[in-house]
Write a structure and sequence with these properties.
Layout (H helix, E strand, L loop, with lengths): L4 E2 L13 E3 L2 E2 L19 E6 L15 H16 L4 H8 L1 E12 L8 E11 L3 E10 L2 E14 L10 H7 L4
Antiparallel strand pairs: 1-2, 2-3, 4-6, 5-8, 6-7, 7-8
Amino acid sequence: MQRLRKKTGTRNPEPGTRNLELGTLNLEPGTRNLEPGTRNLEREAFSWPIRVYYEDTDSAGVVYYANYLKFIERARTEWLRAAGFEQHNIAAQYQAVFVVRAVAIEYLKPALFNDSLQATVEVAKVGNSQIVLVQRVLREGEALATAEVRVVCVNAATFRPVRIPKAIIAKIGTTS
C-alpha cells in the first residue's frame, strides 16, 4: 500500500488547503451533490457534512482519533446512497456486502467540539472485487485527516471475495 505524502513543487489552490498525493492521484477537494441515484461517481469527489458533537471529543474538546473512522464510514455509506445503492439492497439483490480490508490514515490537525466538517470520498482504483478510496476530513477546505481505504466486495453468506456488481461499476467507473 502506498503512503500518502505531501505533493511538492505545486502551489495550493486556496489558502489553507493541502495538496496530497497517492501515487499519481491528486487529492484536491471535490464537489458536492447529494441527489440519490443521479450521480456518476467516476472522477468526482463526494462530500458529506459532519458536525462535531461533545460525544466525539475528549476532555480537551478535541475529536478522539477513532471517531475520524466513523466520520469517513458515514461518508462512504452516503456516497453509495447518492449513487442509488442502499447497503441492505446490495445484500438482498446481489448477495454481496462491502467490508473494509485496510485503512491507512494520517491525522494532520485536530478537529474540535462544534466544528463543521466535510468528509469526502474519492475513487482511486477499482478492481474486480475491491475499491481503493481516498477519504479526507476537512474543515473549511483544510485537510484535518486523510485516509486510504480499501474495501472488498464479499459474498454476504460466506464472506469470500466476489466481483463488484456491474450496476455499481457502471456508477463508479473502472480504473484497473
